[in-house]
Here is the input.
Amino acid sequence: PLTHHRDQLDVKTGQTPLRSQTLSTRKDLYERDFPLYRQPVEVGCFSLDSQRRFFNDGRQMRYYVEPDKNPNFDLKDGYKDRYVRRDENVKEKLDHILRWILANKETLKSKGTADSPRALDVDFVTWRGHLTKLLTTPYETKEGWLLAATKFNGTVYISEVETEAARIEREKRPERNKEMMYWGYKFEQYTCADNADSLPDPSGVVNTNEAFCTVVQTRLADHKLLFSGEVDCRDKDPNAPPPPACYVELKTSPEICTPKQRSNFHRFKLLKWWAQSFLPGVPRIVAGFKDHDGVVVSTETFLVSKVSQLIKNEYNCWRPTVCMNFCCDFLSFVKAIVTENDHSLVYLFSWEPYKDVTYSVHRDSQYSFLPRWFIDGMSG
Ligand code: 0WD
Ligand code: CA
Here is the structure.
């Protein structure tokens, strides 16, 4: 299945190795039938409170309240005096997911074999956001990525490592940029209520430590996946379909005024929005379109299942099948490389635009990310 890896000749033997050591990201290699992607099933959820403390429940769930079609939401409101920002210097890696796995290990563990006594019945554990980056890789021209992979009890854990370029960008982020990051959270506050029968409270504090995350299980071709993603809110109708079908993703985007802007929105932004929501099976995206002054002046609902039709007439556009086939082949590539079961061993996969995916191996390094409490907790 790994036919398009670049074959490298071994310098010493002059032979082509059994499998090649890099993976191409060229779009045309992934233009084939859509791979099997099983309907994602929610197997649990967790919450992070205002102090970023973990709870194995849905206490941070919020409820979608449909805004006016032409609202007047001032996203700048509260930035100076009602904003508590999560500390981005704290690298949480997979910790919250690992906590959730530990809390639910008895229901998750498969029967096991003599080789691996009580393993999870999945091939990969990761964040949804990491998979989103993989899906969009064949179309990405600006930002590369680093993904650390470790095999433990037969499951490969994948955790992102911040690239040097991303760290530099983050540290020199201009003030205007920081404020615009707040705008997205402020839009959530205008459209989400804490209870099914209450209303949004735009006079409150925006605290980005708070999060509600779904944990889903699914399969991409022969890869069994368990991943978690942050969910903005759910349909407040108690008769709405069960999760993840009742979830709603909220987004903001600059107002579209010209055909060129519409085309760019379809070609670049909808790719990221589609990939992020398609993965966990979130069916609906509600977009707030904002003017230059940070005021949401219109809203629009996008059905994830209709996005591919929406972009069909766009010249030189992205294709869902390329995204999914690349992700699938990347996971096969990882399976072929990450063979040693060792919690202190990290295979670091790296990618830069216009290059192939490569990897390096690191033992007991700064990259090790499975904490002691997880290793011990899973063995006990
Ligand atoms: O360690 C890391 N490198 C990362 C950790 C990178 C990305 C996320 N995280 C963790 C955080 O614990 C967070 O609670 O991921 C959680 C969210 O995971 P996800 O759903 O897999 O991430 P993603 O799909 O990229 O983002 C979903 C939402 C974002 O909403 P928009 O509409 O902007 O896509 O999660 C928020 C943001 O609101 N978000 C984050 N929250 C905390 N830490 C982060 C982050 N690094 N990135 C996005
Ligand atoms: Ca969002």
